[in-house]
Amino acid sequence: MGLLDLSRQLIRRCDELGAISEEPGRLTRTFASPAMARANQLVGSWMRSAGLQVSEDAAFNLLGRWNSNQSGAKTFLLGSHLDTVRDAGKYDGPLGVLAAVAAVQLLRERKVALPFHLEIAGFSDEEGVRYQTAYLGSRALAGKLTAADLARVQEKQIVGARRRPGEFTGYAEVHIEQGPVLEKHGLPVGVVTAIAGQSRLAVEFHGVAGHAGTVPMKLRRDALAGAAELILAAEGCGVLATVGKVEVDPGASNVIPGKSSVTLDVRDQADSRRLAAVRSLKIKAQAIARRRGLKIVWRVVQQTTAVRCDHALMRIFSHCIAKRGLRVMRLPSGAGHDAAALSTICPVAMLFVRCKGGISHHPAEAVKTADAQTAIAVLADFIRTLGKAE
């Protein structure tokens, strides 16, 4: 099958996979859900058709393996995630898994032999929707789950997904950019230099519920008003900060909110700036609570440090892009990726693919077939060049 046919197949497969959801009318696949099981079954069938040995580990990560004939070979890992946010697009995550399958299919059809084992992972949880903690799948494989992680999840057996220390020589991930830079510069792909660090927090304001028509404004202890101030403070904190979820109790139109809970997501490529912003927001939240007569609960859900991509792997990706007559653009990622979790056990690299309008985490995600073709070609060449460098 030629590159064009493989790229068309890739887009069709993203469409087919995008129809597997746990919610009617929109795409949602969360960790350990029946929808994720069906997705693994479908993608596993595609892996088998590409000649891979398929398995699923204790963390529900889907794995497709191409064994080398060379004795003493180690393993290079490719992949991305198969879970989604709520009301998702079809390409965030799955594009990387299916591009890796297509690249392997191309190499095997061309009778390429590799001096290392190649494994493709479809990670079970990158988005963190179910338990509000990202990278459960890839951190389980890396052996980096914490006691706090295990306290949250029902599926305690996920610790059994840990792989042997030193097993992987590296990890490469193809992913849509989730931003507008490549499109602005008219480029189909780009090389990622770094992944921003993240702080995920849960904040609760506790006030006093009351009748909306009888409690004077100056005597209220409105928990939602306190949360609203924090949301505005996050907007101006100097780094990327997002309140993505707000819950109000008791949640009636004629009752003053007695409790308000918000999520807070803070990101930056410099860990020092990110942590300084988190400290500043905590101080402001405490001041808001004091002024309004509220109690506050501030809880750190997850901290992920910023990650620098491996220079040697970046050079190979850059070389493979340049060989196709394309300008090489290097750019950082503000989004989190499984590569961040894998960086704790091996060198990592990422290839970004242009997406229409830079839109992601939305049903309007779109990728051109021609860009998918370029991504498959670059990734296949990356694998082949890596084999020569071994």
State mean pLDDT (0 to 100 scale).
Answer: 96
Task: Give the H and E element order.
Answer: HHEEEHEHHEHEEEHEEEEHEEHEHEH
Shape: elongated
Assign a percent range to the helix content. 25-40%
Distance between the termini: 27 Å
**What class would the helix/strand composition place it in?**
alpha+beta
Q: Per CATH, what is the topology of the largest domain?
A: Aminopeptidase
Q: If helices are DSSP runs of H or I spanning 4 or more residues, what is the number of helices?
A: 11
CATH superfamily of the largest domain: Zn peptidases
CA radius of gyration is 23 Å
Broad CATH class of the largest domain: Alpha Beta
Q: Can you tell me the residue ranges where pLDDT is under 50 for at least 5 consecutive residues? A: none
- Total strands: the figure is 16
